[in-house]
Amino acid sequence: MTARDLHGRPVIIGGGIAGLMTALHLAPEPVVLITSSPLEGPSSSILAQGGVAASLARDDSPDLHLADTLAAGDGLCDEAAVKRVVEAAPQAIDHLARLGVAFDRAPDGAFRLGLEAAHSRRRIVHAGGDSTGRELVRALVAGVRRTPSIAVLEGVDVRRLLVEDGEITGVLAVGNNEAISLSTGRVVLATGGIGGLFDHTTNPLGSFGQGLALAARAGAELADLEFVQFHPTALDGPRRPMPLVSEAVRGEGAVLVDERGRRFLADTPGAELAPRDVVARGVWRQLAAGHRVFLDTRQCLGPRFAERFPAIARLCRDAGIDPAVEPIPVRPAAHYHMGGVAVDADGRSSLRGLWACGEVARTGLHGANRLASNSLIEAATSAAWTAASVAAASPGASRRPMPAIVPARPDVSRIRPIASQALGIERDGETLREAARLLTPLATGDDATSDPALVALMITVAALRREESRGSHLRTDFPGRDAEPRSPRLTIDETFQAAAALADTPSAAEARLDRSA
Prior knowledge:
Elements lengths: L10 E3 L3 H10 L4 E5 L8 H4 L4 E2 L8 H11 L6 H20 L14 E2 L9 E2 L6 H14 L4 E5 L1 E9 L2 E9 L2 E6 L3 E3 L20 H9 L3 E2 L4 E8 L11 H5 L3 E4 L17 H13 L4 E4 L8 H4 L1 H9 L9 E10 L2 E3 L11 E3 L4 E2 L11 H19 L23 H7 L6 H15 L6 H16 L23 E2 L1 H12 L4 H9 L1
């Protein structure tokens, strides 16, 4: 099958859980699934150790799941969106099981349910102990492979969305060092997150927010970009991406201690199972004060650690650590992006012909701080609604893709130090403004750094605009909270206008020179 045979089909960009499920839900309509790596290759979905949240226990309910999600979201969740997801979650788990996902079960056949931070009930469904993402991807890839209506283009990197008269007309991609253009009036972004912008991350290093750059340059609106979740317990070592020590380990009773064995979160409400932003800040402040931080599983699990968490045990063993007899060194790492392409309840963006699903989308489920294991259930539920919307939409006029110059392959290396310094767990206006000045000429350029720089710049501008501390966004110069929560949208034009205004203000370094003169 040639690219010419694929013209006019809906195009799904991304081979993680959101993209795979959207493609499966669209069957038997012919679709194109484009992924920059081979299916079952490196992705945030594959690396997901945590499970899928759903109210399945007798003492649980969608209302309790709703309340926990709203509390974690710190005032910025869209309650209607949350209610829709939590009510659909149990059926989504059953659908995944029918697709072949081998969830962990008790001897009586019931789902084995785990506990994670800020959940009031045991409602986390796992697969393979700590290999849930890998098992979901395995089953979904198998489903895609046996579905003849899904054409998969692997090792193909989408560089631009083509737009005419305010609507999508195609995609421009590169595969085998050749340019590929496909005409389509329907595109679904399912490209994952932004963790690759940071030095310390649990995400694949190439995940810099490609979908955000594609959407922004096409003219779509983005929202809540300032909210970046740092997982409190990544395995502290040289490996990148950093191996994750799942929150489920703390759900089993593991505690955080410093090098002297002091449990520094003991007096914090919720302690080790407080919301992720609280725990991450607690760990970060210990490290900033010169301490080391460890996750101690010796009392709660001891020799049972490897049985309960086999993948994490292997990662620890590779690093020379035996969790049964010694604590695990950990530090926070960029893990999940609550912001993204602003979409409605059916995944539609502000740009005609463009949808977004999964981490790249801002649905309103997560607010300012994602509740643990709500990401996979969001992908599973939203994929169905997005697919239904795409199927019902007009395919658009058939247009031959216009000739276009293919942008260079993105390079994040120059952006990573800037983003890590300015957009970390604690932020301040001076550092953010300096980052904006550094990022603007890179984002407005036309080279390998321009797309990663644009994403980092948009997050920086959003962080500057939010002059409060809420959820995962903490401004040391604005420690209070606004009385009225808000989620303004942001476009590429507004970003560059804000950056231009900052360029007219002397930088901190220039101000110091002026004072010393």
